[in-house]
Each structure stands twice: as C-alpha cells, then as structure tokens.
Write a structure and sequence with these properties.
Two copies of one chain form a homodimer. Chain A is of the alpha/beta class. The first copy, chain A, contains 13 helices and ten strands. Chain A has two domains: about 160 residues, Nucleotidyltransferase, domain 5; about 150 residues, Nucleotidyltransferase, domain 5 (2-Layer Sandwich). In chain A, the strands form two sheets. Chain A has a five-stranded mixed sheet with strand order 3-2-1-4-5, sandwiched between helices. In chain A, strands 8-7-6-9-10 form a five-stranded mixed sheet, sandwiched between helices. The longest helix of chain A has 25 residues. Chain A is globular and about 70 Å long. Chains A, B: GO terms for molecular function: glucosamine kinase activity; N-acetylglucosamine kinase activity.
Chain lengths: ~350, ~350
C-alpha cells in the first residue's frame, strides 16, 4: 500500500485487529456542494442473479462538508473525501484492507481530466487491488433509483440542475449542470433568481406587479425591493437564493401569474434537459415509445404541493416519451454509488474477471 | 477642521503655502467598479447666466482603483476615495482649504442609507463649509452629457447596466442596475452570459447550433464547451465575462441567428429601462412627444460597428418617444460630477444662498 500524506486520518487502523477473512466492504460516496456522505456496505453474495437486498444493508454512515473541488479547491476537497471515508470505516469497525471497491460520485466532475485526477487521489489512498470508480454525483442519484443499474435518465433539480442519461452499453450524455452563469434555468437557483428579477422589474416599472414582491420581502425581512440589491451582494451563495423556491411555489398556488409563469418556464427547462439526453442516446428507442427509467431527485422536484414541479415535468415528458418510468428513489445517493460498485464486482465475478 | 484617521494621506498639505485668496476648487469624482477618477476644476465665474466653458478646464486628474463599497468593503472604498482626492489636490498644487465643493458619484449607491454614510465620510474629511454631494455614478454620466444639468435620462451599459431619469424639479427614478443575479439583462455581462448559455444549450442539444461556439472557444483558447464550466468557476468576475461582447457582436454581424437574437433582446431590455424611467417621471410630457436629453455611455453602447447596439436602442426608443435627444458625452463623468457641483454653487450664489 502506498504511504499517505495525511497519515493522521488513518491512524485508527493501527489499533484494529487484522481484517483477513473478515467481511468485504464497499464504500459509496455522494459528494455534493453542501455535504458529502459516505456509506459502508457489505459485499453481499454474487451467487445468484437476484437483485441486491431491498433495502440494502448499510454498516456505517458518515457525513462531511463540501467536496466539490470547484467550490473549495482541490486540497480541501481531497481531505474531505479522505476523512469521510476514514470516518465510515472507523464506524464500521473496519480498515482499508477490507475494502473491495470505492465508488465516489461527486459534483464538479464535468470532464475526463477531473475524473482522472480524483481517481488518482483514490488510488493513492487504497491498496492496489481496490476497484475505484469516480463519477459525477448524478450517477449516484441514478443508481439510487435503479438499485445500482446505470441505465436510463436522471434529473437532479436542487440548488442547481443536471440531467444525465446512460445506455446499457455504457454510453452517457449530460445536459445542463453548468452553473448559474451558463444558464441552469429550472434549478432552484434559477427559479428564485427569476422571482427576484421579477420583483425588481415590477418595482422599476419594467414588468407586471406580482405577489412575489410582498412575499419575498416578508421572507427576507426587507422593507423595499431596493434592499434586495444589498441582500444579493452581501452573500451571493446559490443555496441562499434557491431557498426562496417555496415562496415562489406558494405565490403560484395563490394564483400569481408571474410566479406561475416562472414555474411553467422551469418545467419546460427541466423537461428540455431530459429530452436532450433521451434523444442523444436514443433511450426510448427510435420511435420514442420505448420504456426507460427516469429517476427524479432534488428539492425542486420533491414538493408534493398543489403546484408540483416534478409532476408537471413528468407530464410534459410523457407526451413525447410515453414509456418514461418516473422513479423517486427510496435509498440515498451514497447507497446508489455503493450498489453501482457492487454491480460491477458482480459482473466481473460472473465473467470470471 | 476635523482630525483625520488617515493623517498620512493629507501630509502633503503641511508643506503647502496658505491658500487664502487662491483659486477656489471643485472636486469631481466618478467611482466605478474598475476604477475611480477624481478631477480638480476651478470655480469659474457665476456672474453671467452662460454655460460653463466648453471644454471645462481641468487642473488635475487622478486615478485609483475600485471604490464601490459593495465590491471592496467600506474601509477600502473610503480609503480609495480619500487617496484619489488627495492625489488630485496634490497634483493641482492645492489643499483642502481651497475646496468649495466635492461631488462624488460612485457606483453602489443604491439606497439613501448608502448616500448618508458616504456623505458623512466626506464631511469628516473636509472643512465644514465645503458643499458635499453624493450620488450614484449614473449622475456623473448624466451630467457629463448635459454639462452639469441634471435633467433627462441616462443609460449606462458597460459590464452592468442602469438607467436613471431626473426631472428639473428634482425628482429621480432608476431602472435596472441591480446586478446580474437580479436580471440586468442588456448589460455586457448579460449579453455575454446569454451567449455562453447558448453555447452550452447547443452542445447539450437543448438549443440551435451557433457560430458563438467556435468563436467563443477560440477567444478563450478552450477546446470544448465542457471546459466553459471550469472557466466560469475559475473566476466569476462580471467584467471577465462581459469582455466577450465583441465576439457576440461579430457573430451577429456575420449573420448568426442566435447572436443576433441575443443582441435584439439586449436592445429591448435596455430600451425598457429607459422607457420605465421616462414614464415614471413623465420626462417626455403627458403625450410622450416632449423633448428630453438621453445620455448614453458605456462600452456596450459605443460600438460603432455594423451591429450598433446604441443606435438600435435609440431607434427603439424614438418610436415611442420621438423627442428623446441622444447625447454621447464629450467629457468624462468625473468632469460631469464637478459641473454638477458648479451648477449648484451657481444657483446658490444667484439666490444669495
């Protein structure tokens, strides 16, 4: 095993009994912009062709901060990932020598060079025979809806939004997920920024009056739309702005036309991301009638209110692709990541690889 | 005179001869997000009712960095303002005792509380009888087109955009100028962000193909639209993104429909800001036919290319308000600020105040 630069993180392993013959483990990680989750799962049997246990057993669960290298820088991202894995193994009463596979799904992996770099971090942390996988966080979300099978389409709409599609033969495609500057409309940030813009436009006399004005000012404890300028300058974090989505939904439910228009636009944007990946990969076949899982995750899609953005997106997509099968995952994305690694191990075991 | 906290800045005054009986001065400041300019102007005669000399005499010109308190914080903004004024007075061979008025027009003054705070900084820096004026930077731009008269409408479109209107009886109105989060579409940032978004949409399969893709990637020395994500994350400064406007204009001139659409939208947005302030203040009279100056400044409006955004905005506005008189200022905004102060001194002198 290679030596680590952060020896302290793994010091706990020295006090552990030898793991030889113990339970083999898989680490599944979901690294987002707000937090990073690592779960530790046993490698359950490959002997039959059945699906993994439902729910899959989770031996340990650890949480840390942001591990998106774009947000916090490489050094901090790497240390966060290393610590959360050590924490999960420690909680599971095990060490790295028991690990068979690590599947890391982390936001900010947008390019093969990102993937290669993070993969090299992982390989330096673990023994050479550990299978390491690095993906975008969308992969974990997808796998959490399909119990580890990487096939279909996943739409994530929280603070940001991204759509990914995967074919059974290993091709993939992405749409959106490029951040607010590059137009992730339909995201929580996008919806809330449009609402704030509408308030300013109404105040300026450039747009219609809207209930959003009083509701948003009340929510933020401000007395005039003018003060929104200072409010956005004070802290332009996307999550802080995206937190206004419930206000927009409640205004739309109360009949506000401007808020309603913003949500309808968001539905079109989110649906267009799904359509783009479905078309590029031919996920619903040549006639568009084929069946295909559509995993939907993130705060924007989970509002079970009168105005249900997720439901409207499904309704919009189903017109064009009636075989799309919407799935709201029951397990967390980190479990999806671990199941994905388990599926790969299973295939390799069955093919004798 | 009050004692300064930054004594060092004004140390040069100790070596100056007494200014009693010397030339009275006005300081005019234009504080933007990229730089701050202070000019020193003599107080020329109030005896007749003529306009100020054209061009107005400038005794000294000093430049410093950003003085927008939203961008650099209050302490840094205040020190920048103090230093640039001291620098201008030093270059003019004079001291604060010769100053009759200071007119500071600085970006980021969006609320009366901003104005009051900056006014109190100024008053602490100068003798009690110095007239101090604090405005948004739009005021300096306006006055630079009207030789110090605060009447009409000014549209600024550089990295950001803002429109201000002023009536002869002292009312004013603003539109836009709220920053990118709050939808300053039509700004240089807004145009370029839309162009970047179009590149991503085309790449995703969510929007039409566009010449913007190859031109922008070439300009930024990137090889794939994917890399735009890292590029925007690396440094989200608005000016860096707004610098892509010439690429968008050249694509529109070459017939690219997407680029053309972005510029047409920008024209509508900029025109809507002007219309909003003209309507709120009744600047063109009840029938909209009255005459009114329209001062136009900023990089987005100054492109004398085949696709001339400023010309299109004027053409759009003139349909509704045929009496709008477009002005492209010949003096810099800091001179406008000084002329504004001169006009106030003149009025006070004529009314015996």
């Amino acid at each position: 095993m290679k030596r680590d630069r952060n020896e302290g993180i793994w010091d706990f392993e020295n006090g552990m009994p030898p793991q030889d013959g113990g339970q083999d483990l898989i680490l599944g990680l979901d690294g987002g912009t707000t937090s990073t989750v690592c779960i530790c799962m046993p490698v359950f049997s490959f002997t039959d062709n059945s699906l993994p246990p439902d729910p899959p057993p989770v031996l340990a669960h650890a949480v840390a901060g942001c591990s998106n290298h774009n947000s916090v820088g490489e050094t901090a991202a790497k240390e966060t990932l290393e610590r959360v894995m050590a924490d999960a193994l420690f909680k599971a009463g095990s060490t790295r020598s028991a690990v068979r596979a690590v599947c890391l799904a982390v936001s900010g992996v947008n390019h093969p060079t990102d993937q290669q770099r993070i993969l090299s971090w992982l390989r330096a942390m673990f023994p050479n025979d550990v299978k390491c996988f690095v993906h975008n966080d969308a992969v974990a979300a997808m796998a959490s809806g399909t119990m580890g099978k990487l096939h279909g389409c996943v739409l994530i709409a929280g603070t940001g939004t991204i759509a990914y599609g995967y074919t059974e033969d290993g091709r993939e495609a992405r749409a959106s997920g490029a951040g607010p500057v590059l137009g992730d409309w339909g995201s929580g940030y996008g919806i809330a920024a449009m609402a704030l813009t509408s308030v300013i436009r109404a105040y300026d006399g450039r747009g219609p009056q809207t209930m959003l004005t009083s509701r948003i000012l009340h929510e933020l404890e401000l007395s005039s739309p003018d003060e929104l300028i200072g409010w956005t300058y004070a802290d332009p974090s996307w999550a802080r702005i995206a937190a206004l989505v419930p206000v927009v939904v409640s205004c739309a439910e109360a009949g506000d036309e401007v808020a309603n228009g913003i949500l309808l636009d968001a539905v079109q944007e989110l649906a267009s991301s799904i359509k783009a990946v479905v078309c590029r990969l031919g996920l619903c076949g040549e006639d568009g009638k084929g069946s295909c899982p559509l995993v939907m995750v993130g705060g924007v899609l989970q509002a079970n209110k009168k105005w249900d953005i997720g439901k409207e997106v499904i309704s919009c997509i189903s017109k064009e692709f009636p075989g799309m099968l919407p799935i709201r995952p029951k397990v967390e994305p980190a479990v999806g990541a671990a199941l994905l690694a388990w599926n790969v191990l299973k295939k390799q075991s069955q093919s004798g690889g």
